[in-house]
Amino acid sequence: MPAVVRLSLVAFTMFMVVACGGSSAPDADESQAADDEAAAALGRDTDATVLDDMIETQDRARAVEGVTLGHKQDLDQALEASEGDVTEADEE
């Protein structure tokens, strides 16, 4: 094989190796800190996963649960008050 062909083949191979190399990786500490802040904003200590939609649904359900329990307590008190009125009226 002539020297020019060998040199061209080596140069082409080196060019391909350099061209296919990846860029430098982003700073892992900064991306990890951003992920941690996002998870903390969501109220959990886990990273983003494929189950985020399900977890977000559970988070919304937990948020609504407090409102629902508050309404239930109000209704229970109203029922007890109305039952108390009926029993007092029946006693008189």
Keywords:
92 residues; mainly alpha; 3 helices
Strand composition percent: under 5%
| Oligomeric composition of the shown chains | single chain
Counted by DSSP, the helix tally is 3
Task: Extract low-pLDDT stretches.
Answer: none
Radius of gyration: 34 Å
Structural class by sheet pairing and helices: mainly alpha
Instruction: Report the end-to-end length measured between terminal Cα atoms.
Output: 119 Å
Mean pLDDT: 77
Largest sheet: none
* Count of strand segments: 0
Helical proportion? over 70%
Shape: rod-shaped
- Written as H for each helix and E for each strand, in order along the chain, the element string is HHH
Describe the structure.
With 92 residues, the chain is mainly α. The chain has a domain at 49-92. The chain is 78% helix and 0% strand. The protein contains 3 helices and no strands. The chain has helices at 3-20, 28-41, 52-91. The chain is rod-shaped and about 110 Å long. The model has no long low-confidence stretch (mean pLDDT 77).
